[in-house]
Design brief:
By secondary structure, the protein is mostly beta strands. The chain has one domain. The chain is about 5% helix and about 45% strand. It contains one helix and nine strands. A hairpin with a 2-residue loop joins strand 6 and strand 7. The longest helix has 9 residues.
């Protein structure tokens, strides 16, 4: 399946933001200090062809399947212990500290919409040139999570 990649927004990472990068083994992880800056957010779209199994009126239309962005950072801690039946048999901790790494985010569009409805704080900004509905900036009150506020207006369907 081929996806069409289009810039749909940007995300701003501020000083002090962190992320945890997880791996196939549930116990493995890297903690990252993200590099402050503004990074592009992309939508991955699928274009329906005549053999896509959709109704004829949808042929040639595009549907967003994923929202994705990548942010560089530096490893602040990690754990890649060798495990046997869940028990550490060879510790491998903090071996990658101060190495560069990237934090990749990929989510379904409805997951982003749900996060915005729940008041999850975010710094996504719209890119009007894409022709998609813009995400507008707002200074609304506090979100549903204590001590945090959303920097985006909540979609009308959530209100």
């Amino acid at each position: 399946m081929n996806y069409i990649k289009k810039k749909i927004s940007t995300v701003t990472i501020v000083e002090g933001q962190t992320a945890t990068k997880t791996y196939e083994c549930a116990a493995w992880y890297k903690n990252l200090a993200l590099t402050p800056g503004t990074y592009d957010v992309f939508g991955l779209f699928e274009r329906y062809g005549p053999y896509s199994g959709v109704k004829p009126e949808f042929v040639g239309k595009e549907e967003m399947k994923w929202v994705t962005y990548t942010v560089p950072g530096v490893v602040t801690g990690d754990c890649f212990d060798s495990l046997f039946c869940g028990n550490a048999i060879a510790p491998h901790r903090n071996e990658h500290v101060n190495e560069p790494a990237t934090h990749c985010v990929q989510m379904y569009p409805y997951a982003l919409a749900q996060a915005l409805c729940e008041g999850l704080p975010t710094t996504l900004r719209s890119t009007p040139a894409t022709g998609h509905n813009p995400i507008t900036s707002s200074t609304r009150g506090s979100s549903s999570r204590p001590g945090r506020s959303s920097q985006l207006s909540r979609p009308k369907a959530c209100l």
